[in-house]
């Protein structure tokens, strides 16, 4: 299959592409059923988009293959991590920190390849190398002085189900399960996807989209437009959007955009490949937004050509999926931009409905900066180059070198702080708008590299992952968020519990104690009778319901004349 291997055997890229080709062949062959080509590219409603352990989404080739891999192996949580990322759970990095059970890959488990494109940038005259990140900051004129060489590198990842995370980090595993236990949104014939509806109405795609009554869906190269049957002609709204994504996929290949569509005879091998690009682009885009994409009837005719190409050379899947990645990225960027605008409009409308925006005590200070540790280098690590730069006072050079230790992973809430210096002897050597480096001369000398985050980024992280393993500084932000949420709730409808004995109990959130306090109102405020610790791993409603259920079990609130079993409920005074 494919290009000849060297004497040393197939490369990591060759092995990965061979595996990907085999998986695609198996998937295409499985699309056929007794009733024809009616099976979806991905199992309906079972998988969300694959991400790494820190919540960063995979895209293109990796997303496609990881989704197929999850289906084949039965993984319910599409989260993946490298072996090195797993080992980060076992690094304490701090003195006197409690030693937790080790996180490891289960015995006998095998990794799965993912491919990352890296870029080598070389000056055409001097042959000097610069970093890809620095190249992207250059002007177009300056970029002309460099040659850029892309290269696919292969990494190996494990699904979280292949580790012992469930046993040794149960709180982290519970968060993952909660994230992926969201009920599937039911879609009927009236299903509407507002970002795409607005895109069509406001003509905000790269070419006009014209829904009109008929039986054809196509992208016209000559007219540079997409023609679609009206949504009401499809069996449901979801079918309309998933078929539209196919035609939108075609439109990305036009001249002047991705330059993928070449003048080709209908039915040729080139046209067959373009159909596969459009099909996979539609399948990935639909999956990205929780929809299902079945194989398009017109595309089924090209299945033999696809299978023959895949069997002849795994490179076919590489070039095809790289084109799919570019096309999918173009679709999702346009859709996400409109979705964000809609979200901002709705938030603004909600604020307007509630009234004038209040300046609540403890609300977020946009100027706050938080420091998240991304690398901790001890005497056992090779820090000689950092030492040389520090000793000669080249802190700019030290900061530049320290940034190379950042592996691109997201925030670790356990080691995120308001100030970078956390231990006796810590010295902040240098920082810029994004990074900071702290040195501690004790015990052979250590360097800690921090990535700086805004408070909003910390808040977003808390919303997604909770605070089960967070630092005290991050927990303080969570308490502020809860206080704000409770204050907003109280302004709309004051929580009051109506007890079985007829009594009324008021409720308030105590930010200092991080608790829900229950009692009666007096002239001096709430006379607290009971306090319940607030769980930030659960919603406000869940915490209030839990407090009420515990109160119901207390004898003092039971009816005196008849003992009954009570159903938990809350009464809210407007």
SSE-based structural type: alpha+beta
Could you give the order of strands across the largest sheet?
1-2-5-3-4
Q: Tally the beta strands.
A: 18
Q: In angstroms, what separates the terminal alpha carbons?
A: 71 Å
Annotation field: number of helices: 18
How would you describe this structure in keywords?
ArdC_N; 18 helices; single-stranded DNA binding; 574 residues; MPTase-PolyVal; alpha+beta; disordered N terminus; globular; Antirestriction protein ArdC; single chain; five-stranded antiparallel sheet; five-stranded mixed sheet
Question: What does this protein structure show overall?
Answer:
With 574 residues, the chain is of the alpha+beta class. Among the domains are: 369-462, no CATH class; 493-573, no CATH class. Helices cover 38% and strands 19% of the residues. It has 18 helices and 18 strands. The chain has helices at residues 12-30, 60-73, 83-87, 132-136, 140-143, 165-168, 170-179, 194-201, 237-251, 269-288, 297-300, 303-312, 315-354, 384-391, 395-402, 455-465, 472-492, 540-552; strands spanning 51-52, 79-82, 112-123, 129-130, 146-159, 209-211, 218-220, 225-228, 369-377, 416-417, 426-431, 435-440, 446-454, 494-498, 504-510, 515-522, 525-533, 571-573. A five-stranded mixed β-sheet has the order 1-2-5-3-4. Strands 10-9-13-12-11 form a five-stranded antiparallel β-sheet. Strand 11 (426-431) and strand 12 form a beta hairpin. Helix 1 packs antiparallel against helix 12 and helix 16 (455-465) packs across helix 17. The protein is globular, with a radius of gyration of 28 Å. The termini are far apart.
């Amino acid at each position: 299959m494919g290009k000849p291997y060297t004497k040393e055997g197939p490369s990591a890229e060759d092995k990965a592409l061979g595996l990907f080709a085999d998986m695609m062949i198996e998937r295409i062959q499985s699309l056929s059923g007794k009733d024809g080509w009616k099976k979806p590219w991905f199992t309906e409603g079972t998988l969300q988009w694959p991400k790494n352990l820190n919540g960063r989404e995979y895209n293109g080739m990796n997303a496609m293959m990881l989704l197929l891999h999850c289906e084949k192996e039965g993984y319910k949580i599409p989260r993946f991590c490298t072996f090195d990322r797993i080992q980060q759970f076992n690094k304490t990095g701090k003195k006197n920190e409690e030693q937790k059970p080790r996180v490891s890959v289960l015995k006998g488990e095998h990794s799965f390849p993912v491919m990352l494109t890296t870029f080598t940038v070389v000056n055409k005259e001097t042959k000097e190398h610069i970093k890809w990140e620095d190249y992207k900051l250059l002007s177009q004129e300056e970029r002309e002085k460099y040659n850029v060489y892309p290269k696919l590198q292969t990494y190996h990842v494990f699904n979280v189900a292949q580790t012992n995370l469930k046993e040794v980090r149960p709180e982290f595993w519970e968060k993952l399960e909660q994230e992926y236990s969201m009920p599937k949104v039911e879609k009927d014939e009236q299903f509407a996807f507002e970002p795409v509806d607005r895109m069509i109405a406001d003509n905000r795609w790269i070419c006009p989209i014209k829904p009109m009554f008929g039986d054809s869906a196509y992208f016209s190269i000559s007219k540079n437009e997409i023609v679609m049957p009206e949504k009401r002609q499809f069996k449901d709204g979801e079918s309309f959007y998933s078929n539209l994504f196919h035609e939108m996929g075609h439109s990305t290949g036009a001249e002047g955009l991705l330059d993928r569509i070449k003048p080709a005879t209908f039915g040729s091998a080139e046209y067959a490949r373009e159909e596969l690009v459009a099909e996979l682009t539609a399948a990935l885009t639909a999956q990205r937004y929780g929809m299902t994409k079945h194989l398009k009837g017109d595309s089924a005719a090209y299945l033999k050509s696809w299978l023959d190409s895949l069997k002849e050379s795994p490179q076919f899947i590489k070039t095809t999926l790289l084109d799919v990645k570019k096309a999918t990225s173009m679709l999702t960027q346009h859709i996400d931009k409109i979705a964000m605008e809609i979200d901002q409009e709705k938030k603004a409308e909600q604020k307007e409905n509630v009234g004038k925006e209040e300046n609540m005590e403890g609300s977020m200070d946009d100027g706050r900066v938080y420091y998240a540790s991304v690398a901790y280098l001890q005497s056992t690590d090779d820090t000689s180059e950092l030492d040389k730069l520090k000793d000669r006072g080249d802190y700019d050079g030290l900061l530049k070198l320290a940034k190379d230790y950042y592996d691109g992973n997201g925030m670790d809430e356990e080691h995120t702080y308001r100030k970078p210096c956390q231990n006796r002897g810590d010295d902040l050597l240098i920082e810029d708008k994004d990074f900071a480096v702290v040195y501690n001369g004790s015990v052979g000398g250590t360097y800690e590299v921090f990535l700086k985050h805004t408070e909003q980024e910390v808040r977003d992280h808390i919303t997604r992952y909770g605070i089960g393993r967070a630092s005290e500084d991050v927990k303080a932000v969570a308490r502020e968020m809860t206080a704000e949420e409770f204050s907003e709730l109280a302004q709309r409808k004051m929580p009051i519990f109506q007890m079985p004995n007829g009594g009324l109990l008021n409720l308030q959130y105590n930010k200092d104690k991080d608790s829900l306090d229950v009692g009666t109102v007096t002239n001096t405020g709430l006379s607290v009778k009971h306090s319940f610790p607030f769980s930030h791993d659960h919603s406000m409603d869940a915490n209030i319901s839990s407090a009420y259920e515990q109160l119901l079990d207390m004898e003092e609130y039971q009816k005196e004349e008849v003992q009954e079993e009570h159903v938990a409920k809350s009464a809210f005074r407007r």
